[in-house]
């Protein structure tokens, strides 16, 4: 059984959602960043951490990739063109959406006060909005980023869009709102929210 360290109000939710989608057994320890439970496995102190036997894995997308590959679910096979396209979506989301949201969070809350530049958030919102246009192009007619197949890229995209809404980064395009609503209506997403923390 997997052990997931981290609470669902962080990127840990991505891993919990994936585990629910693939039906893998897990237990969750809702630890906070930099707590002893986290730093025992990852001195950086960031969430989540996945324990699989004697191995500890860190960083949500790396964990999702590991789990998807191991279970042969929510991903295309490595070395295939379909996987190359999937990975392109994943890296685009990390570079263009996740990075804007995380940088804004750091400048508003997490950096030491003397290193925060809150004024940068307006620029990040502009950059994020441009990236949303490219995300909508990538989604096309959907229903998922990779056409008819849901992958870990969709979990990442949905988490970033949810994070954006909570952080007051506007997500106004109807196609993206519909996509987010469809993703959040999935039973596995509901279980990840209800059964944890």
Residue stretches low in confidence (pLDDT < 50, at least 5 long) are none
CATH fold naming of the largest domain: Glutathione S-transferase Yfyf (Class Pi), Chain A, domain 2
Number of domains: 2
CATH architecture label of the largest domain: Up-down Bundle
Q: Provide the succession of SSEs.
A: EHEHEEHHHHHH
Residues in helices, as a percent range: 55-70%
N/C terminus separation = 18 Å
The proportion of strand residues reads: 5-15%
Instruction: State Rg.
Output: 17 Å
Main-sheet strand order equals 2-1-3-4
Number of contiguous helices: 8
Number of strand segments: 4
How many strands, what sense, and barrel or not for the largest sheet?
4 strands, mixed
Report the CATH C-level class of the largest domain: Mainly Alpha
User: Which structural class do the helices and strands define?
Assistant: alpha+beta
Which overall shape is indicated by the principal axes computed on the Cα atoms?
A: globular
Mean pLDDT: 97
